[in-house]
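Entry:
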Amino acid sequence: MQLTEHVSLLSLNTFGIEAKARYFAEFASVAELLPLLAIKKERQLQLLVVGGGSNLLLTKDFDGLVLRNKIRGIDILKADDEFVYVRVGAGEVWHDFVRWCIDENLAGLENMSLIPGSVGAAPMQNIGAYGVELKEVFDALEAIHIESGEMHRFNKEECKFGYRESIFKTSHKNQYVITAVHFKVRKQAALNTSYGAIEEELRRMQISNAGIKEVSDAVCNIRRSKLPDPLVTGNAGSFFKNPEVLKSFHDELKLRYPELVAYPLANGNMKLAAGWLIEHCGWKGKALGRAGVHSKQALVLVNLGGANGNEVLQLSLQVKASVREKFGVELETEVNII
């Protein structure tokens, strides 16, 4: 554990934004984390915990303490006839864990392949892709209360998962550091290939009897074809959530825009495709200075080279205003803006 000052965060956010942290340290265990939280408390510093930095937009230097979670480890805790229970360090790379499950022939995460970020960040926003959400394979998590330093365990119900949502983004925001996540994965696969273009990609791959590895490969192919590589073009994946609207409102929009893309929800509401809304406001492939909207997926904002966080933020505000004016829909940001 080493506390350093005036550290560049350029390599710690996938947007490739240059910003500096007043103080910075990494921790690889709870024992290393606790004294850092004591320093934060003693000096009354703001705290920002980062993993892969894949859901983060920095609009300014951070005048506080930035901690990078590097707690590793994947351990099987127990198994029954149907499930295997796995404990994973919050600093593990998410896709590395997905690949570990596939190598162990454990099912449930294959649709969430290649999502950038760390395991600890996954439950914070209940990550999901291609019809599967984290909550479906989640069992519990361990987290340190920042103020008291006490360890707490949260089960699925206590996390109050919603669409890209949990209590760690609402009532418990900035109150805990997640140190480990427990998963409940299946011994036998229950494949979900109906969402998006998975079945089409499997056909293109000439696979007729897919398993979890083939589904994972198909998802990776789709994501690579649609989404920019952060190592080449700075981005944070989906910048906006897909908005949920009343079915009556959706039906009115559908009359005006018959090609509107939407999905029914269990509560009777409809989820609109934010990318479709943005594209039909004319933003796809457009730039505003050094920030732009990705040419293949309008849901993704990109750093075209040398952009600062405020340029990306201003672009996002203009995109939101366009969608509000044209469709009467308020887009909600998925990315954490600092």
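The chain has a mean pLDDT of 94.
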